[in-house]
Design goal:
transmembrane; membrane; Ammonium/urea_transptr; mainly alpha; Ammonium transporter fold; 13 helices; ammonium channel activity
C-alpha cells in the first residue's frame, strides 16, 4: 500500500469530513447524558456505560471487518467482502466513496454511525440486561443487522440503493433500524419489575438538557457530513438540520403550554424528534419543508406518547416512538 498517496489528501473536503466525524463521535456520550437524566437514579451509571461501551465494541468490530462487510467491494446482496479487513485498502479504491479525501476518513466517519445506532437501542432496555450479554448483543447485532442494512442503502452495490431508496444521513439505517430493534428487544426481555407506564422516572434533567444540546450540535456533523463534501448540499443539510430541531422544540413547548404545563423533559424530546424526522431528507429539501418536518413529527410523536400507557411493551425511553415514529411523519 502506497501510504504517501493514501494519506496525501490535504483538501477542504477532508477537513470537513474529519470535523464531522468528531462531531458525530461526540453524539454517543451526549446520548448517554440525554438517556442518563431520564432514567431512575439507580440506573444512571448503568445507562451511561451502556452507551459508552458501544464506542469500544463497535469501533473494534468496524476496523476488523464491519467496514469491509458494509462497504467492501463485492456484488453480493447481503454482505460485502473480506477484502478490506483491518481497513487495508489501496489508493485506487478512494474513488468508490471518497474521491476528494482519504477512504480512511470515510471509514472513520461511517464508524461513528455504526457506534451510535446500537447505543440508541440501550434506551429501550434500561434495567433489564446484564453487561456481558449486552456486550455480546451489541457485537452480534452490529454484524448481522447494521452492516447489511448500511450496505443495502449506502453501498455502491446496495440493492435498496439500486431500487431508488433515498436516505441522506441515516433515516433507515440508523433510526428505523434502532427503533424497531429497541421495540423487539423490549418485547423479548419483558417488563421491568417496577414497570408503570404512567410514572415519570427522570431524576436529573440538567443531564438531559446537556445531552440534548450536545446531540443537537453533533447532528450538524451527522447530517452535514453526509454530503461527503464541503459544498452547497452540506450547507443545505446543516440549515435543514437546525430548522427541523428548532421547529420540533417550539412545537412541543407550544403543545405543552396549551395543555397547561411545559415539561422540560418533553422540551428536550421535541428537538430530537425534529432531528430524527429531517435526517433522511435533509440534503434533498428546502428549509421551509424542514420546518414542516419538525412540526409534523413533533405533533405525531407527542400524541403517540399520550397513548403510551395503553401499551403493554416496556420501551423505557420511548426509542420506538422517537426514532421509529419520528421517521413516519
Amino acid at each position: 500500500m502506497n501510504t504517501t498517496k493514501l494519506f496525501n489528501h490535504d483538501t477542504g473536503d477532508n477537513a470537513w469530513m474529519m470535523t464531522s466525524t468528531a462531531l458525530v463521535l461526540l453524539m454517543t456520550p451526549a446520548l448517554a447524558f440525554f438517556y442518563g437524566g431520564l432514567v431512575d437514579r439507580k440506573n444512571i451509571l448503568n445507562q451511561l456505560f451502556l452507551s459508552f461501551i458501544c464506542m469500544g465494541i463497535v469501533f473494534v468490530q468496524w476496523v476488523l471487518f464491519g467496514f469491509s462487510f458494509a462497504f467492501g467491494p463485492s456484488t453480493k446482496i447481503g454482505y460485502g467482502s473480506f477484502e478490506w479487513l483491518a481497513l487495508h485498502f489501496g489508493e485506487s479504491e478512494n474513488a468508490l466513496y471518497s474521491p476528494t479525501y482519504p477512504l480512511l476518513t470515510f471509514a472513520a466517519y461511517q464508524a461513528t454511525f455504526a457506534i451510535i445506532t446500537p447505543a440508541l437501542i440501550s434506551g429501550a432496555i434500561v434495567g433489564r440486561m446484564k453487561l456481558i450479554p449486552y456486550m455480546l448483543f451489541i457485537f452480534i447485532w452490529s454484524t448481522i443487522c447494521y452492516d447489511p442494512m448500511a450496505r443495502w442503502v449506502w453501498s455502491t452495490n446496495g440493492w435498496l440503493k439500486h431500487l431508488g431508496t433515498l436516505d441522506f444521513a441515516g433515516g433507515t439505517v440508523v433510526h428505523i433500524l434502532s427503533g424497531v430493534s429497541g421495540l423487539v428487544a423490549s418485547i423479548i426481555l419483558g417488563k421491568r419489575a417496577d414497570f408503570d407506564p404512567r410514572s415519570t422516572t427522570a431524576h436529573n434533567l440538567p443531564f438531559t438538557i446537556l445531552g440534548t444540546g450536545l446531540l443537537w450540535v453533533g447532528w450538524s456533523g451527522f447530517n452535514g457530513g453526509s454530503a461527503n463534501s464541503a459544498n452547497g448540499i452540506a450547507a443545505l443539510a446543516l440549515v435543514n438540520t437546525n430548522a427541523a430541531a428548532a421547529a420540533g422544540l417550539i412545537t412541543w413547548v407550544v403543545i405543552d403550554a396549551i395543555r397547561g404545563r411545559v415539561s422540560i423533559s418533553g422540551a428536550c424530546v421535541g428537538p430530537i424528534v425534529g432531528l430524527v424526522a429531517v435526517t433522511p431528507a435533509c440534503g434533498f429539501i428546502q428549509p421551509g419543508w424542514a420546518l414542516l418536518f419538525g412540526v409534523i413529527a413533533a405533533c405525531m410523536v407527542y400524541f403517540l406518547l399520550l397513548l403510551k400507557h395503553y401499551m403493554r411493551v416496556d420501551d423505557t425511553l420511548d426509542v420506538a416512538f422517537v426514532h421509529g415514529g419520528g421517521i413516519f411523519k
